[in-house]
Amino acid sequence: MGARIKLQNIDKNYKQTKVIKNVNIDIRDGEFLTILGPSGAGKTTLLKMIAGFEEPTKGHIFINGNDVSRTPIHKRNIGMLFQNYALFPHMTVYKNVEYPLSVRKMPKEERKKRITAILKRVRLSEYASRYPRELSGGQQQRVALARALVFDPIILLLDEPMAALDKQLRKQMQLEIKDIHREFGITTVSVTHDQEEALTMATDVCIMRDGRIEQVATPTEIYEKPASVFCAKFIGEANVVPCPVVSVDRDGKAKISLHGITVPAPDQTRSYSENDVVNVVIRPEKINLVDDSYGGLKFHGKIEQSVYVGDALKLRVRLGNGHHMKVKVFTTSSLSLDVGDEVTLGVPEEDIVQVKP
Question: What are the structural domains, with CATH classification, of the chain?
Answer without folding.
Answer: 5-233 (3.40.50.300), 237-355 (2.40.50.100)
